[in-house]
Amino acid sequence: MRICVVGPTYPYRGGIAHYTTLLVRHLREAGHWTRLYSFTRQYPRILFPGRTDKDPSLAPLQIECEYLLDPMNPITWWRLCNRIRADAPDVIILQWWVPYWTPCLTAISRWLKRHTKTHIVYICHNVVPHDGGGILDRRLATAVLRQGDTFIVHSESDRYQLQALLPDAHVVKMYHPTYAELATSAGSTTPAELRKHYGIDPELPILLFFGFVRPYKGLEYLIQAMPLVLKQRHVHLVVVGEFWTDPDFYVRYAREFGIEGAITFINSYIPNEEIRPYFDLCDVVVLPYVSATQSGVVQLAFGFGKPVITTRVGGLHEVVEHGVNGLIVPPQDEVQLAQAIEDFFQDGCGVRLTEFVQHQQGDRFSWAKLVEVIAGLPVG
Known about the structure:
By secondary structure, the chain is α/β, with parallel strands linked by helices. It has helices at 15-29, 74-87, 102-115, 135-145, 156-165, 191-198, 219-232, 247-256, 275-281, 296-303, 316-319, 334-344, 349-359, 367-375; strands at 2-6, 33-39, 66-69, 91-96, 119-124, 150-153, 171-173, 206-210, 236-240, 263-266, 284-287, 308-311, 326-329. The chain is built from 14 helices and 13 strands.
C-alpha cells in the first residue's frame, strides 16, 4: 500500500510528534511505501503556551521526512497537495487534535478529495479539545472532519463526540498504541541520584504525576489528597512536566495544606533520554484528570512497566482496568483518590498490578494492530 502521512515529528516535541513518528516507522517496517510530510513551523509564538515547541532531546525519535507545510502560508498547502497527488497514495493520514489546524487541514483534505482518489484518514487524538468543546470548537472540528473517509479514535468518548458531529462517519476505535520504544534509553541519571538531587528520602514510596500541567489534568485534587494519604503512610509526590498554567498556584496550594515537604515540583519538559529515571523512581503513576478522552501518558507509564491510578473520565477507564493494571476513582474526589493510593500500597495490590503491566500487556497496545487497520482500508 502507498501511504502519505501529514503530522508533527522531530524537531517538534510532545506525544503527537512521537505518535506520528512511531506510526510511520511501523508502517514502513510492515512493508508499506510511506512518505511523511511535516511542518516547517507549527504555531506562532503568541498562540503557544509552552516555552518552545522544539524537542531538546539528545536521543530524539527521528525518521526520514520532508518538511513542507506551513499552517500560516497557504502557498505551502497547495505545494503539499500537488506533492501528494504526484505520490499517488492509496491512503493519506492526517493528524487532528486542536482547532488551530482547521484552515490548513480543511483546505488540504478538500483539495485532495476533489483532485485525487486517495482514501482520507483522520486520526483524531481529540475530536474537540480537552479544555474546550464549545460550539465554536465543534463547528471547526466538523468543518475539517467532514472531508474524511475514515476516522481512527482511541476512546469511546471520542467515537461518541465524532458521531455526534458526523452521524454517518466511518469510525474505527482502537487502543492508543504503546510508547514502550521511549523506554529503550537507559538514561544518564539513576533513581538514587534523582532522590539525592531533590533531597527525597531513599526509603519513601514515590507517586509520579508526569506530563504538561494544564487545568484539565486535576493536579490540585492530588495535592488535596496528599494530607489524607500522609495520615496513613509516608510517601512523596514528584510532579514532572512543563507548567502551562501558573506554577505558583500549586506551590501555594501545597504550602496551605502544610505538605510542601512531601512534594517535589519539576517544572520542565523532560527529554527522551531523561524520562526513564523518573518512571524507574516511582511506584505508581497518578493522573487525577478532570476531563480527558485518552492519554499518551498512560501508554508511557505502561511502556515503562508502571501501573496507573486515574479517574473515570473519557476513555481512561477503557485502558486502565480497575484492579488489573491500575485503579480507577471518580474525578474531583480527593477522598477516593487518597483511598486508592492507600489501597495500592496494601495487601500486595501494587505488586500484583505492576507484575501484570510488566508481563501481560502483550499485543493489546501494539502498533501492529493500527497498521493492520490502515492496511485493511478500502482503496481505489
